[in-house]
Structure formats: C-alpha cells, structure tokens
Amino acid sequence: MKCVIIDDEPLAVDLIKEFVSKVESLELISTFNNAIDAIAMINTSNVDLIFLDIEMPHFSGIDFLNAIDKKPLVIFTTAYSDYAVEGFNLGAVDYLVKPIPFNRFLKSVMRAQQTFLSQNNTPAAAITPKVVAPEIEPDFMFVRSEYENVKINFSDILFIEGLKDYVKIYTTDNKFTLTLISLIKLENLLSSKGFARIHRSYIINIKYVKSIQKNKVLIADKRIPISESYKTAFFEKINL
Questions:
Q1: Is residue 80 within 8 Å of residue 55, measured between CB atoms?
Q2: Which pLDDT tens digit goes with each residue over 55-98?
Q3: DSSP 3-state assignment of 136?
Q4: Which of 39, 74, 89, 193 gives a 20 to 30 Å CA spacing to 134?
Q5: CA-to-CA distance for 139 and 2, rounded, in angstroms?
Q6: How many degrees, rounded to 5, is the angle at CA 231 between CA 88 and CA 166?
Q7: 63 phi/psi in degrees, rounded to 5
Q8: 240: number of Cβ within 10 Å
C-alpha cells in the first residue's frame, strides 16, 4: 500500500516513518507537516493509506478528511482519545493514541491491508504484512549532563520528570541526571520499551509501579500524578 503521513510534530512523523520502514507491504511516498499542503497531492495521486494526525493548527485532520475528493484508507494518530467516535464515524480504519507502540501500529496496518485487499478482490490469505527483521536496538542511551555524556540503562530508569527545557532522569541508585532534552523525544524513544507518558511532565517505567491509586502511581517513594489526557492510553497500555 502506498501511504502518506500527515502530522505537525516532526518526532511523531519520524516514529511513524520508522514503523513504516519495517513493514514491507507499505511504501511511504510523502510526508506533510500540515494538512493543507497535502490536499492537492491526495486528490491527484494514487494513495492507499494515510496516517493522519487530528490536532493540527489552523486545519485539523478531520477538516482535511472532509475536504479531499478522493478517500484513501485512514488511520488517525493523535495524543487525545476524545475524537475516537468522530474518527470512526468518518470511516477511519483505526484510531491510534500516541505514544504508539509498534505492535499496535502493526495491528492497525493489518486491519487496513485487509480492507484494502478486500476492496481489490484479493484473497484473504495475502493480508499478513511482512515485517522487516528489526536491527538489534541498544538498551541504553547517552545523555549530556554538565560536561560529560552519561550512559543510562533503560532498565535502571524509574521515571523522568520534565522541567521546561530540561528533564530529570531518576534511576534505581537513588540518583538523578539533569539533561537538556525534550520530554517528547524521550517519549518516542522509550514508549516501545515499557515506558508510558502519564502526565505532561512525567514518563514512567511501568515495571517499577508499585500501586495505582485514583489519579496517581507510586514508584519508589514518589507519588506521580496521572493527567486525564494521558489516562486512557496509559490504562489501555497496562490492561487496566
């Protein structure tokens, strides 16, 4: 399937591009950081599938879908779950809540491919997408702290706290590392490694959660808030 990504967040585009590159049955033909620029291309080209963000400035993904003449298959990608019903009413194949784990992405692609092949009278046996064998990914990262690059193992991270332009990375040795990096960049890096964004200021390592009470999780001796905008995706991730 020939696909297009439309999202105003560069890091979100990069993540979906990476996912697409792992699925042999997908061919990425273009990316756009706003929906308006994509209209002419969609109306004049053969596009089979769009990964479409909903919350974009000036012209939303839903506005875009209502504006185009040709209607490819659509998988909505968004940080908010509020639009799920409207998305499905518009005929979306699926609705992915950011941060998107690869296994959930692949499930959506399989659903889209099943619809695509059905529309083209292709036998159902052909619907399983081939996944390119992934390269072995490191289980650590280096971050700049003061005058050195510090190695941090993902398995040692308890949680991460955002502080404007900086983040504090708390680890199992009761220390923290302060580094200049965006929380969303860490979210995209860690979402497929057992971490979850539960608040605009916090990413947690799920394996260290001791308990969940109302709108907070307990990790070590720290009670960390769960905001409403991340609650649904977090509970879905932990099957709660």
A1: yes
A2: 888 888 888 888 888 889 999 888 766 654 555 556 788 888 88
A3: coil
A4: 74
A5: 32
A6: 115
A7: -60, -45
A8: 8
